[in-house]
Design a protein that fits this description.
alpha+beta, 24% helix, globular
Length: 100
Amino acid sequence: GLYSNNNLIGFMQLEQKSLTIYELEKLAVLPAYRHKGYGAILLKFAFQKTAALGAHKITIGMIEENTKLKKWYHYHGFIHTGTKKFAHLPFTVGFMEINL
């Protein structure tokens, strides 16, 4: 979690997929704190933490239609690797990754 004045303002989760690959999940920042660099702080922590654990890659899955978020991840070095439509979801899942 990321805190400001003892208030949780952001969160992210890492899940180990293999010895060298982690998946970044649930990266979120409260609306009032968005566009102020807090997401980038969480992302930088994810990069540092996974690299310290021996990872070589971080993957993400996201709503493909969210072009603003996809551009944000691209700006931070992620590349788009594909999409998949799941019957139980009303959107397409886009996949991205970054090599550390």
